[in-house]
Write a structure and sequence with these properties.
The chain is 30% helix and 21% strand. It has 473 residues and is an alpha/beta fold.
């Protein structure tokens, strides 16, 4: 399904979900690993890497900066020629599209260079995404960063002269990626460290991911061993610092949320391969606690996660659903795992009681205003949606009857606003056999936007549908 139509009708499941799903690698881990591998003294191979629009943007930017990047999409590997913290190019013009991780990480990388002039820009929506907290912090550390357009936003022009390091105040409340960016370049400052002083609270899960990748994780996985240990209690490491080693990328736990939700919509059960709960299984999965918190939420609508074994060996987790959702009154703060709030919100029309979702104000400044967009699309489905006055949440009172009434009038078209998470979340809702005859009742506009993080999402969804409708034991 490489050539998507502008409007993609979703074929409902007429039988309970069944089969296995192989998830793509984590975008957040892949883009962090690309940057950290470039800091190493020699080549590092990323295995299980994600190949998507966002990671291609990051890889191409590193090439523009003079790094050697060799990719094998079939093998899901990316080999990065590390240069020990040195940027080979002395000038470059980098285009980051709408990739927030690339925008923040590359800004810090270029500012940490000892010399060079670097220009960074993106698509019009990227010019609206928060950058000021990072820019202010880097300037306080000695960076010369100029904003040819609006102050505090893309485009940027960086006249590199290195960073001092040491204590620095930062407001990363609008995006934790800004704090992660500082942490990753810290070893290459004049002092060899940056000690961030937070002006406002920050969402911790992705910052903790960064710290663990830098060398504060478990002893079971390779780490980049770049973060200084101030406690003297760091665990034994499998350090990746000198190059010539491999770094495994975990499957994307946020992308898993769509297939976690699918059995709640269709009934049945699905096995998510190579994914494990942090507390169980033989696969070390300790970087994406945000994605696993969604499992806790979905357990309230009748889902049951269990270890999945293949040929007697642990191979992932199995999600078992129920044929009829019976959840009443979900009230959940999504502050620390907001990327998955759309997955829950999109399937609320099938629930039996009101759902309140809070902690999502910052998502108004992501790929699109996700809160406002969700309000519009749910109301299009005939749902009663109350947008909280503080802008930080929604209360959704579902009506399956009203949704069915509107579907009987014709195909309901879901606008995605160019946002991959709208496309994937509502596609899962469309898998529900609302009319009872297997006919499509919901369609996704611009399904190709999934290329940002999960290019073959609709192919995987179709494979699961085909498996579910085929005879099986």
């Amino acid at each position: 399904m490489s050539n998507f139509p502008p409007l993609l009708p979703i074929r409902p499941f007429t039988r309970p979900a069944h089969g296995t799903v192989t998830l793509p690698g984590s975008k957040s881990i892949t883009n962090r690993a690309l940057l950290l591998a470039a800091f190493c003294n020699g080549p590092v191979t990323l295995t299980g890497a994600l190949f998507s629009e966002d990671t291609e943007i990051m890889a191409e930017a590193l090439r523009q900066l003079g790094f050697v990047i060799q990719e094998d999409a079939g093998a899901k590997t990316i080999c990065v020629g590390g240069r020990g913290g040195v940027i080979p190019a002395k000038s470059a013009s980098l285009h980051v599209g709408l990739a927030g991780t690339a925008a923040r990480f590359l800004t810090a990388l270029c500012a940490a260079a000892q010399e060079g002039v670097f220009q960074l820009d993106g698509v019009p929506q990227m010019r609206k995404r928060p950058m000021k907290g990072l820019i202010d912090a880097l300037r306080a550390l000695g960076a010369d960063i100029r904003c040819p357009g609006a102050e505090g936003f893309f485009p940027l022009e960086i006249h590199a002269r290195g960073l001092r390091g040491g204590p620095v105040e930062i407001d990363a409340s609008e995006s934790s990626q800004m704090l992660s960016a500082l942490l990753m370049v810290a070893p290459f400052t004049a002092s060899g460290d940056i000690q961030p002083i937070l002006q406002k609270p920050v969402r911790e899960p992705f910052v903790e991911m960064t710290r663990k990748m830098l060398g504060r994780g478990t002893a079971q996985r390779p780490q980049f061993d770049l973060l200084p240990d101030r406690t003297g209690t760091a665990p034994p490491l499998f350090p990746i610092k000198q190059g010539g080693q491999e770094y495994p990328i975990e499957p994307d736990a946020t992308a898993a949320s769509y297939f976690v939700a699918l059995p709640a919509v269709t009934g049945g059960k699905l096995a998510l391969l190579n994914l494990s709960l942090p507390s169980g299984g033989t696969l070390p999965m300790d970087l994406q606690m945000d994605g696993f918190k969604f499992l806790e939420v979905m357990s309230t609508v009748g889902l049951t996660p269990n270890p999945y074994f293949r040929h007697g060996r642990f191979a992932g987790i199995e999600i078992a659903g129920v044929s009829n959702l019976s959840c009443r009154g979900i009230n959940k703060d999504f502050t620390e795992f907001s990327d998955t709030f759309l997955t829950l919100a999109a399937i609320t029309p099938l629930l039996e009681g009101p759902t309140t979702i809070t902690g999502i104000a910052h998502t108004r400044k992501q790929e699109t205003d996700r809160v406002a967009g969700m309000v519009r699309e749910l109301r299009k489905l005939g749902q009663e949606v109350h947008e909280h006055e503080d802008g930080d949440g929604l209360t959704i009172t579902p009506s399956r009857t009203e949704m069915k009434k509107r579907a009987e009038q014709g195909l309901i078209e879901i606008e995605t606003y160019g946002d991959h998470r709208f496309a994937m979340s509502f596609a899962i809702l469309g898998c529900h056999d609302l009319r009872g005859d297997g006919s499509p009742w919901l369609a996704i506009r611009n399904p190709a936007c999934c290329a940002k993080t999960f290019p073959n999402f609709f192919d995987v969804l179709e494979e699961v549908r085909n498996d579910s409708h085929s005879p099986h034991p």
